[in-house]
Write a structure and sequence with these properties.
Elements (H helix, E strand, L loop, with lengths): L3 E6 L1 E2 L11 E2 L2 H18 L2 E9 L6 H8 L3 E12 L6 H10 L3 E7 L3 H7 L5 H13 L5 E7 L6 H14 L3 E6 L18 H17 L3 E4 L2 E3 L6 H7 L4 E4 L4 E4 L8 E5 L3 H6 L5 E5 L5 H8 L6 E2 H6 L4 H8 L7 E3 L3 E4 L1 H4 L2 H10 L8
Parallel strand pairs: 1-4, 1-11, 2-3, 4-5, 5-6, 6-7, 7-8
Antiparallel strand pairs: 8-10, 9-10, 12-13, 13-14, 15-17, 16-17
The structure holds iron/sulfur cluster.
Iron/sulfur cluster binds next to loops.
Length: about 375
């Protein structure tokens, strides 16, 4: 059985002004009791995982507790085990300890290799820090390293993003997640009246980045994810292919068969560290009980370059002809239609939300009897 585990570690050294993820300042005592609560929950669920992802927050800031948690988790041979890290939190000691605990993949929050862009983003590390961290991780024996890049940054251009990609390709990283900066309400960025590239320039930055990745041997497998052959993130693929995963920790989401019923449920845990630490077992809030539906399944699947097959649609009672009628509502350049299915093109990914809405929620015209 294939089951993923997401562990949320809600501690960061410093809050970034654009970030709305749930995190609080790192504190070693708080981190210790939080890790104890994660371990209690892992022992309660008694599962064996084939992917584990420590996200946050900045799990690498709490690396000692991540290693303690790792010591108590059960995982299969060959499991993919990822820890999110920030460049200024990685040392030889932390990297070797994580590796010895079983962690075999790092996701490093580089965001850009331009110091001007990093300053404008309010990051505390420099391009040189990021380069040293990636090199150190490689020297410590990590063979699967992902970096995060951000697109649409203040002062960013298609050329500057190409330069960042050349640097990371030269370093030999295996995977890149390149997300568009989104100004979230209630973050300091939202009230700072900053100047960002307009929509047209942001689209050019995205297309330039995707082409540059391709030039350096990265294959686009999702709207924002690019990988060298065989280095796609197996854990995140579970999310997009509606595979099962359990989330432990504050703000962690799950799609998991928690009560032995035949279908998995979607649930999450409140963003309340005190409550999580004092509860014997995490309190979950169920958001979706019913069987997986077509809208949710297709919405996730169409994010992938592999797209959605007609056979998958038929499982939900939707014939190929009905899907083809929906496809007519989308400009032809935005879709790749083959005998077996539908995928969104790179240009289409720029307006993926609108396309996915058309393909998943337009009235069903014909169903399988
Ligand atoms: S390090 Fe990551 S999680 Fe922490 S505040 Fe910055 S962006 Fe958010």
């Amino acid at each position: 059985m294939s089951l993923g585990l997401y562990v949320h570690i809600p501690f960061c050294l410093q809050k970034c002004p654009y970030c709305d993820f749930f995190s609080v300042p790192y504190d070693s005592r708080a981190s210790y009791s939080y890790a104890d609560a994660v371990i209690r929950n892992a022992e309660y669920y008694k599962e064996r995982f084939d992917t584990i992802y420590f996200g946050g927050g900045t799990p690498s800031a709490a690396w000692w507790d991540v290693c303690r948690i790792m010591g108590k988790l059960m995982f299969t041979d060959g499991a993919e085990i990822t820890v999110e890290a920030n460049p200024n939190t990685l040392t030889q000691e932390s990297l070797l300890s994580l590796k010895n605990s079983g962690v075999n993949r790092l996701s490093i929050g580089v965001q850009s290799f331009s110091n001007g862009e990093l300053r404008a983003l309010g990051r505390t590390h420099t391009s040189e820090d990021a380069t040293s961290s990636v090199k150190l991780a490689l020297e410590c024996g990590f063979k699967n390293i992902s970096v995060d890049l951000m697109l649409g940054l203040s002062g960013q251009t298609p050329d500057s993003v190409r330069r960042s990609i050349k640097v990371l390709a030269g370093l030999g990283v295996h995977h890149v997640s390149a997300y568009m900066l989104k100004i979230e309400p209630k973050t300091p960025f939202a009230s700072m009246n900053l100047k960002f590239p307009d929509e047209n320039t942001t689209a050019q930055i995205y297309l330039a980045a995707a082409a540059e990745f391709e030039k350096h041997g990265f294959v686009q497998y999702e709207i924002s994810n690019f990988a060298k052959e065989g280095c796609e993130c197996r854990h995140n693929l579970k999310y997009w292919r509606s595979g099962e995963y359990l989330g432990i920790g504050t703000a962690a989401h799950s799609f998991y068969n928690s009560d032995g019923s035949s279908c998995p449920q979607r649930f999450f845990v409140m963003s309340d560290i005190r409550e999580f630490v004092k509860s014997n077992i995490q309190n979950i809030i169920v958001t979706e009980k019913e069987e997986i539906n077509f809208e949710n399944y297709a919405m996730l699947k169409l994010r992938l370059s592999e797209g959605l097959t007609f056979a998958e649609c038929e499982k939900f009672g939707l014939r190929k002809e009905a899907m083809m009628k929906r496809c007519k509502l989308v400009p032809p350049d935005y879709l790749k239609i083959t005998d077996t299915g539908i995928a969104i093109t790179r240009e289409g990914f720029l307006v993926s939300n609108q396309i996915i809405r058309k393909l998943t929620t337009e009235p069903v015209v014909q169903t399988v009897e």
